[in-house]
Specification:
about 150 residues, alpha+beta, Immunoglobulin-like, 8 strands, about 15% helix, about 35% strand, globular
């Protein structure tokens, strides 16, 4: 009787081990910020949601700088959306917000403005990251668009 129970349980056990080992092989570790490579195909994925006028890609600027453009209303929450500046090593330099300059509860384009102040950079280049407001904090609602920039040193 014990042998019969063992023979019935053994295939279930082996099948569950096989499933777990296959599952662990398909999981890739998340890349660190330093490993992120921005290629031209990935840049500006959200041109139908966000259009940055100032600063332009690879434009040199210094602190403080004005951020201008337009975004679809749902890029904002309570008329604001976060912006982050990192150096070329993806080390944080500054955080700020862009603010809608009109009715933001719409699907239409809404102009935005913001000011970004940052300390003297340690690198000549960096990345300006425009994040979509995500008050839920849920990963599936997170979006951002990145501009490569140069600093006036």
């Amino acid at each position: 009787m014990k042998n019969l129970i063992f023979l019935l349980i053994l295939p279930l056990f082996l099948n569950s081990c096989k499933y777990n080992s296959q599952e662990s092989k398909t999981e890739d570790p998340l890349p660190t910020a330093a490993e992120v490579k921005l290629n031209s195909a990935e840049k500006h994925r959200f041109t139908d949601l966000l259009k940055v006028k100032t600063p332009q890609e690879n434009q040199s600027f210094s602190s403080p700088t004005t951020l201008e453009g337009e975004a679809r209303g749902y890029w904002f929450f309570e008329a604001d959306a976060p912006v982050e500046l990192v150096n070329e090593n993806f080390e944080p330099m500054a955080k700020s917000y862009i603010s809608a300059q009109g009715e933001w509860m719409t699907d239409d384009w809404v102009p935005f403005e913001g000011t970004l102040e940052f300390p003297t950079p340690s690198t000549q280049k960096g990345y300006l990251i425009f994040h979509r407001a995500n008050p839920s904090g849920l990963e599936e609602n997170a979006m951002s668009d990145t501009l490569e920039v140069s600093f006036k040193i």
